[in-house]
Amino acid sequence: MNVAHRKRSGYSLLEVLVVMAVVGLFLAMGTALMYGFTKLNTASAWTLESLTQGRDMAEVWKRDVRLAQSAPKAPAGELVLELAGETVTWKQQDNRLTRLVAGQTIGRDWILGPGKTWVEFSPGDRPDLIVLRYGDERVNGRHVRGEFTALRGGDLP
Length: 157
Prior knowledge:
35% of the residues lie in helices and 33% in strands. The protein is of the alpha+beta class. The longest helix has 55 residues, at 13-67.
């Protein structure tokens, strides 16, 4: 019997090992890809939530400043606004910015970010212009994450 004409009845061990290695490689690449997509999805969701909260906070803050009749002196990190019939206090508590209405025990909070944060209320170029800045404390100084300006008693030109 001639060996060249013999019919093979299965795969050799080497062929099976090569197929298993290729399948393992595809599984490893697929797992790494899925892990990357999961991290990207989480980061995108956090960024979107942060931007949405920042926009919401800015709208409420600007509305309060525009409706304010006066802004008495307040401690650092706080802003007191006298609106028609109520007093609203904006202040930092840990990594949150809180809006409290006088006479109410529960306020509204916005998360400023993870870690150590800061808030600053300062007058602008005009006495009725108020600026809200917030950001992160870093080793090399302060990093500004948001800055909003509003005109007390009216809209900006």
